[in-house]
Request: fold
Amino acid sequence: MSEKITRRASLAGAVALPFALSGNAPAAEVGLDAVARGRGMRFGSALSARAQGASMDNPAYAALLRADCGLLVAENEMKWQHLRPAPGKFDFAAFDRIMAWGTANHMAVRGHNLLWQRRKWMPVWLEKYDFGARPARAAADILVEHITTVTKRYGKRIESYDVVNEAVTPETGALEETALSQAMGGTEATLDLAFRTAHAQAPHAELVYNDYMSWEPGNAAHRAGVLRLLEGFRRRGVPVHALGVQSHIVTAGPDTSGSARGYERNWRQFLDAVTGMGYRLLITELDVRDNGLPADPAVRDRGVADYARRYLDVMFSYPQLRDVVAWGLCDRFSWIGPFEPRPDKAARRPCPYDADYRAKPLRAAIAAAFARAPARGT
Ligand code: XIL
Reply:
């Protein structure tokens, strides 16, 4: 471990980066993962296998990944919709390429995800599947086969999995259902089986429940539902080790420090309850939705950076948090634009680098937050 840290840190420190840096980023910037490692933490990003996208096949994007990341996650390629095109068929080609690139570049790769508890994001065939005369048994077989096949294939190369993604309905805090969990006869039984199977097949791996309950107002029911779910896992002795806090955070206006101050108390109560049950924390999908900020890129970037730095300061005060993954490094490819365009149609600026691969104040804010974070023990 320490050998790896030294190697990455010196690599990032010694090499002038092959892309333009702007704003308050100094010329020979140290990579974000290297800064994180100095605190016993790690930094990484999502990437895709689409050649023209946020991909290792895009040289400009690959340069950002190499410079800043020690940890990777496939934006889509491990999801059922991509990996499991038909009931009896797996297609590992795209994810395998990501894994091979990560290995060649000495980066860890997280698994995202083994079960997305949302109908919309599971394959269409599963919603229409005929589970037959013994539906609970048939559904369990499909789930166990899926998780066993994926975890066996990657073995010790994957040390951390988002086993279950987004099982709680934000508006009510109730559990989501899919065709699979209905056939199983209940969502709790489905989620428990997912974690127990992952633990049996990959006993070395960190098993994570991942969701987007966030610190902004309007998330109280979502947070309460996640707490109930996490309590239930503990009560039933289900092997769940950590909460993945997606961290798709959202600005509300120019007073970013006022917002952050206003949110901190409730958010800490939530995190205290989670860590009080013995769960570790991860930031799994960091980006910033630049709502309520003026279109002027310089003003917007400052607001985004300030808001993120305040959020990270709170998160980093929890020693249970070590890993931070950004949901993409470059504004050009971020999912936020298509998912929720700004009302004024200005291009979204949610990532550490702009559409031309130039570092933004958000990158400096992440570096500063790491540099200030209390060091984690080994
Ligand atoms: C998103 C991807 O970024 C998109 O490309 C895809 O169309 C939908 O999924 N929470 C998650 C991620 O757990 O998997 C989602 O990724 C974003 C929200």
Q: What stands out?
A: The beta strands are 42-47, 71-74, 108-116, 160-165, 206-211, 242-245, 248-250, 280-289, 321-326.
